[in-house]
Design a protein that fits this description.
Blueprint lengths: L4 E4 L11 H9 L2 E4 L2 H10 L6 E3 L5 H13 L4 E4 L12 H9 L4 E4 L4 H9 L6 E6 L4 H11 L5 E6 L4 H12 L3 E6 L7 E6 H7 L7 E5 L4
Parallel strand pairs: 1-4, 1-5, 2-3, 2-4, 6-7
Antiparallel strand pairs: 7-10, 8-9, 8-10
Helix pairs in contact: 6-7, 7-8
């Protein structure tokens, strides 16, 4: 009988956010495929989870996928986790899920924390519809082109960003979208969590030396 692939959501910062179902699943499977085994060992150690780990990320997914499918064929169950949040959401995982499903293996989701939904809930901006852009392109022209493509949409926009690109992204947001309302969430669920609400120009002035992981939630077109 073929094994099952479990897509397991993990905490985005606070280790206490791991669900009971996720904990029991990670203890029960035969193998855990982790984006970064060093990061995952901290979480697993906190919950005394001793399940074997294998690295599965963008740079080795072709080679590792074959090993994982061999184990699924033998009947082993596998959980895939990312460093934080849900695999496949701006993290490795979607290709493995698609191939496993296409090959007839059972795939189950074990829901958990998500930075994008947490930020949307905190933003105070409409969340009945929103556009999630993930990480924007690194090059200015490509980044601005991406923003122009959504500039006329009325839906709220959610963006992930690294600290060293926050200022550049805020600058492009202002240039392309104008001085819209924005909620900037930094280090969600962590000790230094910060939620800034204002307009884009105010966010530029506030985050002069940004640190940590960011989610930018921007108002849609009026």
């Amino acid at each position: 009988m073929a094994g099952t692939l479990y897509v397991v959501g993990t905490p985005i910062g606070n280790l206490a956010d791991l669900t009971y179902r996720a904990e029991t699943t990670l203890k029960a499977v035969d193998l855990i495929a982790a984006e970064d085994t060093r990061t995952s060992r901290k979480l697993l150690g906190h919950y005394n989870i001793s399940t074997p780990l294998i690295a599965y990320h963008d740079n080795n997914e072709i080679n590792q996928a074959k090993k994982l499918f061999d184990k699924l064929n033998k009947g082993d169950s596998i959980a895939i986790i990312s460093d934080a949040g849900t695999p496949g959401i701006s993290d490795p995982g979607c290709e493995l899920v698609a191939r496993a499903a296409a090959s007839g293996f059972p795939v189950e989701a074990v829901p958990g924390s998500s930075a994008v939904t947490t930020a949307m809930a905190l933003s105070g901006l409409p969340a009945d519809e929103f556009l999630f852009l993930g990480f924007l392109p690194r090059r200015i022209k490509e980044r601005q082109a991406k923003l122009r493509s959504v500039a006329v949409f009325p839906q709220t926009i959610a963006i992930f960003e690294a600290p060293h690109r926050v200022q550049a992204t805020l600058k492009d947001l202002f240039a392309v979208l104008g001085d819209r309302q924005i909620t900037v969430c930094r280090e969600l669920t962590k000790f230094y969590e910060e939620v800034f609400r204002g307009v884009i120009s105010q966010a530029q002035e506030h985050f002069t030396a940004p640190r940590g992981e960011f989610v930018l939630v921007v108002a849609g077109a009026p």
